[in-house]
Write a structure and sequence with these properties.
about 160 residues; mainly alpha; Substrate Binding Domain Of Dnak, Chain:A, Domain 2; 6 helices; about 0% strand; globular
Length: about 160
Amino acid sequence: MKIALTVAALGLAVPGIAAAQDLRFSMASTQECFASEGTYDECVGASALRCMEENDGGYSTYGMGACYEYERAAWDAELNRIYQLAMERAREMDAENGSYAPSQAEALRAMQRAWIPFRDRKCDYERSLWAGGTGGGPATVSCLMYETARQVQTLNLTFPEG
């Protein structure tokens, strides 16, 4: 499956990161994994992991949360891009099918709107497993990252790019 993350090499600074905690981040590891025919399970999180490995303090609770957040933001940008593409195609299909078929655009919008609270509740549960411990923050952001990537995969399978 071809994945073209539009956020090529994020050299971002996440708002709120202290100057002493300047983390370098790039989506290169994830992109390289997909380019070598890696699966979602193998590739999602690869850039966050490299961020943790290559930055001082990357394995601190704060560093892990920030590295996961960088990759989550990249997946979120990709989700927005692929959703817009899927919506355009769904509208085209609605126009072709006429009024006799259920609207794909309406179904896609409803699915996406239902997915958001599902993702959030799933990740709230993930956080609860940490019983208030400091690992709950990074675990939550990691969950959001993985769930967002899975939704990209779902939309890519439904509306593959040509």
